[in-house]
Design goal:
- The chain is built from 10 helices and 10 strands.
- With 249 residues, it is α/β, with parallel strands linked by helices.
- It folds into 2 domains: 2-96, Enolase-like, domain 1 (2-Layer Sandwich); 105-216, Rossmann fold (3-Layer(aba) Sandwich).
- A 6-stranded mixed β-sheet has the order 6-5-7-8-9-10, sandwiched between helices.
- Strand 1 and strand 2 form a beta hairpin.
- It is globular, with a radius of gyration of 17 Å.
């Protein structure tokens, strides 16, 4: 996918100059730290577990140039892409900290001009946003295969003919559906990519109709790594992070 290729190109030079220090493959999220002090997280995208080994034997990258792990952003294996995306976020850590603070769900929905009757497609279930969308009187179609929500192809069909807003989990980058969904959206559909996995790298999305990026930048290294090791989810990570936001234009 072009998005993954762009991320590799953007960070290739930096990745050659630093080492991957820690790779922590947690049940919920994956974390990577680098020799220059960066730390990043990404959702651990696990396919059906058919053996005791979930990661390739050669994924070990600790103490090695980060370029080797970065190259796996275009791997056909989601768990390798999870580790590589966490590395991207670690390499981008300092830059992401310069972005404006995300002021929460209500501010996000204001940016997307969500009001009563606004037709919203949500890919990936975000409970706090669902409650706020309901309170605003928006019409919703929620698709999340892991939760059994929605039908195959429903998101694309609604984006082509029905939706006014797309709320897309960054997890879609890991299962290679992000670009398909974003390009399926009819002209004028307002879109956001969000979640702790979101690479806060606007130039990587320049070829896609993305209006808002909303992600997290870890502030507490040890707290973040502990949460990942303990299989914790987004609420736990948020306690150790700063939420940031980028808006096109």
């Amino acid at each position: 996918m072009e998005l993954n290729q762009r991320l590799e190109e953007i960070f290739r030079e930096r990745a050659e100059a630093v080492r991957a220090e820690t790779l922590c493959l947690g049940l919920g999220y994956t974390a990577v730290t680098t020799s220059e002090g960066g730390i990043g997280v990404a959702y651990t995208y696990l396919e059906a577990k058919t053996a005791c080994r979930m990661a390739p034997a050669d994924l070990g990258c600790e103490g090695q140039p980060a370029a080797g792990l970065l190259a796996r952003i275009v791997s056909p294996h989601p768990i390798e892409r999870s580790a590589a995306l966490a590395l991207v976020n670690a390499l981008n850590h300092a830059q992401a900290l310069t972005l404006p603070e995300d002021r929460g769900p209500e501010a996000l929905l204001d940016r997307l001009a969500v009001a009563r009757g606004t037709r919203v497609v949500m890919v990936g279930f975000f409970g706090p946003l669902v409650r706020r969308l309901e309170a605003r009187g928006a019409e919703m179609a929620v698709v999340d295969a892991q939760r059994g929500l929605g039908r195959p192809g429903e998101a694309e069909a609604r984006l082509e003919r029905w939706a006014e807003v797309l709320i897309l989990s960054a997890t879609a980058i890991l299962n290679d559906t992000a670009e398909t969904l974003l390009t399926a959206a009819a002209p004028g559909v307002r879109s956001v990519v969000l979640g702790p996995s979101t690479p806060m790298v606007p130039e990587a999305f320049a070829h896609l109709p993305v209006d808002v990026l909303a992600g997290m930048v870890p502030l507490d290294r040890e707290g973040t790594l502990r949460a990942v090791r303990h299989g914790q989810g987004t609420p736990a990570l948020a306690r150790f992070a700063r939420k940031v936001c980028w808006t096109r234009g």
